[in-house]
Amino acid sequence: MYKVNDNYLKLPGSYLFSTIGKKVNAYAAAHPDSRIIRLGIGDVTQPLAPAIIKALHSAVDEMGDAATFRGYAPDLGYEFLRNAIADNDYKARGCEISADEIFISDGAKCDSGNIQEIFSLDNRIAVCDPVYPVYVDTNVMAGRTGVYDPQKEIWSNVIYMPCTQENDFVPCLPKETPDIIYLCFPNNPTGSAITKEQLQEWVDYANRVGAVIIYDAAYEAYISQEDIPHSIYECQGARTCAIELRSFSKNAGFTGVRLGFTVIPKELKAGDVSLHSLWARRHGTKYNGAPYIVQRAGEAVYSEEGKAQLREQVAYYMKNAAYIYQGLKDAGYTVSGGVNAPYIWLKAPRGMSSWEFFDYLLENANVVGTPGSGFGPSGETYFRLTAFGSYENTVEAVERIKAL
Ligand SMILES: Cc1ncc(COP(=O)(O)O)c(C=O)c1O
Question: Which residue among 273, 296, 314, 350 is least packed, with the fewest CB closer than 10 Å?
């Protein structure tokens, strides 16, 4: 008789966004005339930029001609894309990352979930609290997190690093020593950013204690302030302690197109074992590459035309972010984020819990956000709104909230 991986059975409840989806669907079914505005899930709404559409069309044409048809992609991804990434995302920012340290994938969710596979089950992970749920849940599935305490909503073998108003939503170095540290900046869900000086402290710490940092920079394109690093490799010593994850979802609207990459410097070693070679082996064995046409679209992100169009797209969302931030502040809410990230993090008013505020907002303003408690215990009483809606919907949602 076969057995299942019973680590899956330890996962509490359903995935946050399925719960939200069910609640919203039930409300919509009961109130068919309501016009619900969704500022909950972090999905983009603007269409792909013209430079990307052009690249997609031209790659599709290549696939229809025997002379230019492509089959399986090279294991790490096409060189044209890895070179564009190395030049634009790294060399241009003074980071020493070469094209052969970049692994192209179909997005940062898979990479952030899969990367734990190359580490022993004995490792202790540290995560921000609140946190993007994928980091914790994939470690639960692997059997690395110990026992769940449903009262406290924490795992016995996970080090939680609270991100609160007191520390400006940037974690302090943990008291217990972790082996694997997940950091995500600009942050989902809090919208906070880390300065280069603060990140350098983390890099120094990881090198000192022999930990690896998994740095998720999916929202890098939203950075607007000077002292905020776009990559962890802007910090001295990051090549010996950090893996970086990137996505094309938020900077270029590829949430449905699917493209991302992971950077593993060759110096990153556990003893004499190179993490680069482990990930190369994993990638080669379990993954057959992002589609050629999508990698060509990714290349267009770095063309002059593409860059200009995407700057506008990011600016569009950030205009929404500024509108939400200011509107809620004017209405008396305690708000943060929204400056280097497309997320606004607000405190639920009048002592409401995150889910109470979710229901209140859904029922009274027909606006959907995300309860902060869904991202971890320190998210309780907080609430996340995203700037990824249309400007018109964003304005209307804010006006409805202000009128409550
Ligand atoms: C922090 C973070 N990492 C990764 C992802 C997923 O990115 P992708 O669409 O590339 O899988 C998200 C998506 O919301 C995210 O918030």
Answer: 350
**Is the separation of the CB atoms in 130 and 372 below 8 Å?**
yes
CA 109–ligand 1 middle distance (angstroms)? 5
Which atom of ligand 1 is least distant from the CA of 259? 10
Binding site membership of 112 for ligand 1 (Cβ less than 6 Å): yes
* Range of weakest confidence among 16-20, 81-85, 239-243: 16-20
Q: pLDDT band at residue 310, thresholds of 50, 70 and 90? A: very high
Please work out whether the CB of residue 386 comes within 6 Å of at least one atom of ligand 1: no
pLDDT over 90 (residue 403):
yes
Query: Ramachandran region of residue 168, left (φ > 0), alpha (ψ -120 to 50) or beta?
Result: left
Q: Is the CB of 188 under 6 A from ligand 1?
A: yes
Alpha helices in 99-232 (DSSP H): 108-114, 133-142, 196-209
Encoded tokens for 76: 């790490």
* Residue 111 alpha carbon to ligand 1 centre in Å: 9
Cα(249)–Cα(118) distance, integer angstroms: 25
Q: If you count DSSP H runs as helices and E runs as strands, how many of each does the chain have, helices first? A: 12, 17
For residue 90, pLDDT beyond 80: yes
Q: Where are the domains of the chain?
A: 8-47+305-402, 53-303
Q: Is 38 in the pocket of ligand 1 (CB under 6 A)?
A: no
Q: Check residue 18 and give its pLDDT.
A: 85
> What atom in ligand 1 is closest to the CA of residue 247?
10
Q: Specify the CATH class of 53-303 in words.
A: alpha beta
pLDDT at 41: 83
Q: What percent of the chain has pLDDT over 90?
A: 97
DSSP assignment letter at 87:
I
Question: Looking at residue 341, what is its pLDDT?
Answer: 98
Kindly indicate the confidence band of residue 16, based on its pLDDT and cuts at 50, 70 and 90.
Answer: confident
Do the two domains 8-47+305-402 and 53-303 of this chain adopt the same fold? no
C-alpha of residue 249 to centroid of ligand 1, in Å: 7
Q: Is the pLDDT of residue 320 over 80?
A: yes
Say which CATH architecture domain 8-47+305-402 belongs to: Alpha-Beta Complex (3.90)
Q: Decide: 89 and 229 in contact? Cβ < 8 Å.
A: no
